[in-house]
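HUMAN:
Sorry, I am quite new to this. Are you able to go through these amino acid letters and fold codes? The numbers rather puzzle me.
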Amino acid sequence: MFGRTMELLYTVSEKRSCDDAHLTSLYNAGGVCTVSSKNIVAFTRITTRQDAYRHRIPVCTVCVMDLNCPYEPHVILESTNTVISLVFNSEGSQLLVVLSLGTVQLFTKGSGLHEWPSTHTCDWDGEDILHINFFHGGIRASLQSSDVKVHSPYTEKIVAHLHKPTLVDHGQCAQNGFFAVSASGLLLVCVLTHEGCVLVEKKVVLGQTRDNFTVATAALAPSGHIHVATWKPEMIKCWRAELKITHQDCAGGKGDLNITIEAAQSFCPFRSSTTWHNSQKSEGLVQVTCLHYTEVEDPNSLLVALTVERPAEASPTQQANNTCSTGTVSHLVQKYQLQDQMRPLLKLFKPKSDSAGISTKEWACVGEWVSNSHVVVLGTAPRHLLPGPPGAQLPFIITAATADAFIYSINRDNMQQMSSHNLLNIRGSGDDIPVSKRVYLDRRLVSLAHTWSGFSVLAMDTSGCLHFITLMRPADVGPQWAISVILLLEFALVSGNDWWDLLVSTPPTSVPTLTEKLSETFHQHSAPIIQHLHTRFLVMKTSMLRLLGSQQQKAIEARLQAQLTATQQLFRSLRPVTCDVASADKNISASVQGYLESRSSLDILDIEKSLDHLCSSVNIKDCQVDPGQLQNLQPLLQFAADLALFILFMLAQNSKFELARDPKIVQSLRELIFVARLWHRQNKLVLPQMFHKTQSVDVWAQIYKILTRLAQILPADPDSNLIDECVLLETQVVCRELPLYVPARGVLADMVSSAPMPLQYEFGQVETSSMSSAGGQPRILEGALPPLQMLDPLHYHYIAPQEPKFNCTRCCSVRASWWGDSESAWDQQWASNCICSGHWTHPPVSPSKAA
């Protein structure tokens, strides 16, 4: 069913020279990487610097980057201590960084990808932290893949499951915080307030006394409990913890945090052919190297990576000579399930047939996978979003990294190997290999991080390289591929997760079909759902269409629709100055929308008469908006006017121009120009600036008139009279060329350009040709003014070369760095993400050379 080899999409490596070969020992301590639900990567890099005695000392840096631009890391922390663990919360807005000696720092994402200020630091007295995670927020949704049609509404496909928050605050609200398990047997808990401040820190002992553990993991049960599993030689010990906040007493004393620890079912790992009561130490030494709950929210399924050393039976000759024989070593990954077992009572005193039994929960080995080498890392996706009977959905994949630099994918249902990948794929050996490549021959994997969808995995090795590997492709899965991708894209649309990892795993040839199916389902929903998700849906559609070279015009249309729809929703949400409360009756946006869609509005071509007709049925005072808000909206009105003028001029030169034949774009522009003219009656500052050739003509009214005539005849072809009016408009006003096409960059651009796979990058490398060619787009409108460089596509502001700016990580858009800090609703909507779903960040600077 599946191919034998995984598909390596790209590799990003450190810049090295012959003099750096001896520095690879710095990575022997390992490294860490993790991927958030927004496809942001946090990982560690090792650099060196000189101390006061001019000695080179290693420095561990924590970097973040977008998966689409893996060559642009942004440093958020530098420390001489080793980074043990990195964990994102479910929304991807917070990051936990665990340092050696028990130091934990909490970082919170700002408006830019490079902005991760440290909001809290915990110092837990030099504890060696084995596992750390955030509290569960109580929201748990999954996809219903069985017996659901493709065109079913989201409410039938996405099912909400009962899941109690880890810690419940007053009013039954979920409390934010995190917990950790230490090697000395402590459960460490930090509770945060909703403002991000520390409420309480507490530590309790797991069990009766302190212990010594080497491996630990934890799961968040639907009941709200924290389930902890640890490895102590010869036994896997499990606990269940419950967190509660006590209420304030009558005297006004502050509430406290109560932590209740209960012993759960523990067990001794064994081979599947033996049982717990008849295994003997003579059968071999068992050492657990990794513990991992299969899913974060499922405490009943546990993965155990272990090494079993079996001594060989000595022959009589060897016994006489007192020589030892070499035993066998087995490397296994076992899946244990917590199941109900019947155990007999009073077995020694009654016959077996008459003995009573009792039902107990016990761990049972339900499958195992045998490896040829030592298993160093186990990884899974956080959740299985497509549950169902085997064969009816995408498999849930377990990845195992071994000491011989292999990555294996394993099907969780049957524990069968599906595919593999070898990192040591450099041809040649010995002196034939350059020194710059020879340093990679002894590398091994140290960390695995799955994307939220489970489609891909990010692997980090001891040389500091990152490898992005696709685990599932259409040819490997079969006919259920398209349905599964549609379900996951819809889940990303509703949940707020990023869809980049789904798109890079999708063949471009299937993009038109997927977008068509997604559109059909989306527009079948009710008006409130469409209004709430419309902008985000158009952003997703834009991201998908630009993967295919032949769909670039449709991608431009979807991008413009997304921007115009977001502007419409913003205008409709504005409350008049006469509104004392948030009353829908005072907001005339519904009246304006209904009027513009009516036949009577289409019959009146004069904008002033149309406004008089509307104002006769509403209170003119309810149309007044705060002048301060209008000042912030002026760039959006200017964009609508310039875009309308550009489309009409293109229609005069080409009657088949696609944007002029899109009813949604024409109607959106018509509404924005109409509302702006309505506001202009009360505030003369609301006025789009145009380059008039003659002052005797009301160009604003002419644009509305032609747009109304165009809306009357669509989807039919424009007649000659309409074309003549557009030509006449060219003699009255000058238009500026608009750069409508914004090229993709990074991995997306290289995939569209059919670059050889796998893609090869280096940290800090110069941007590819897509960025440099973004400003050299061909002119399509004859006689128009040339476009200005570095146009902010959202705030419609032309940025000077020396002005501070942000770059998008997924397209060539540039944003001014100042407007994300304002209080405008429009600025806040796009402060963190571009209209293509990319992340805003500072232009990269050359990072320090890593070891």
